[in-house]
Each structure stands twice: as structure tokens, then as C-alpha cells.
Amino acid sequence: MYDHLLQNILKHRIIPKDEQVLIANSFSIKRFKSSDWLIKPGTIARQLFFINNGVLKITLPHPHNKDVVYFFLKEHQFMTFLYSMYGNVPAVQGLQAACVAEVMMINYEQLTDLYRQLPYLRALIDEIAQLSMAEMVTIKNVYMFGEASDKYQNFLQRQPDVAKRVALNDIASYLGITPQSLSRIRRSITNSKVIF
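and the corresponding C-alpha cells:
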């Protein structure tokens, strides 16, 4: 259960076994249903999450519509809004389950206690978060321009496992196209496939 959490950390640093156990034992497991909030926009992020199973979505409030999906996160990624957690300020974004999800989580007080016991850990978590953010921006930039059908084809190529598990409305929001356009695109793709 804790293997993926530790493997993710160990990719970046060698850690003694007893410290690995300390880290793993500091996290608890929680399951979320689709659409459950892990962090609501306008609230302070109080936990660090590691996705064991499922897909989470980062949302942005929209003044005239429901929240916009900014990004999908899948298994074996850490996630929180560090600026909110460390700065004790409300998060602009939200974090929500895009499907049934199981996460490992640690609250801020336990995390700061872990940082005191393992002084290298904060810099390590921050480094992992920055790498994840850079990857997120790179992927998101691919969907910024082009025709709606091109955006959807890119999404299917780059994040096929996510495409199978999340709602079509969320995919449309993420790609910046209307649900109606996405339905038409999906129909045309299905109709254009030749069955032998």
C-alpha cells in the first residue's frame, strides 16, 4: 500500500529504512467519491495528498459558469497547494475527485513534525512538487491552441488512462471546448473507425 509513496520519494533521494517507515506511518488512507472535494477553493490547504488510485482534478472558479477543470492528476503523484499550506492563505484553486479515488494523506501539523525529524524532507517534497508542476504546465500548453478535434486527439494520446475514467463534461472543460463539440468529435472519431 505504501510502496508507491516510498518509491516516488526514493527516485529523488536514498533514505534509510527506518526513516522510510517513519514517513509511511505518518500518512493515513482515505477514499473519495467522484466530485468529493479534497480542497475547496477559498479554503486553506491543510493536507498533503499522494494519489494511490483514481484521478483528481484541479479546478478554477469561473465567474459565470461552474468551475473550470485546469488539470487532471493520476496515480502516484503528490498534490496540494503548497503556497496555501505553507503561507496559511486560502487557495484560489480547488482539488476534487474526478472519479472514485484513494489517497494517502498527511495533515500540516504532522508534516511539519516530520520535517523537524527529517530536515531534508521539506526540500525534497518541494522539489517533487516543482517537477510535477513543470510537467503539468508542459502538458497543459499542448492543449492551449488548435482545433477542438486536435486538442481531443492530443488528450487521448497523452492521457489515455485519464480519458477512460473521467466525465466528458470535465474533459470538455479541461480542453476549453463545449460538451456539445466534444460529443460531435467523439461521434466522428467512432464513425470514422473501420471495423474489420
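(Above: one complete record from the training split.) Residues 121-142 form the longest helix (22 residues).
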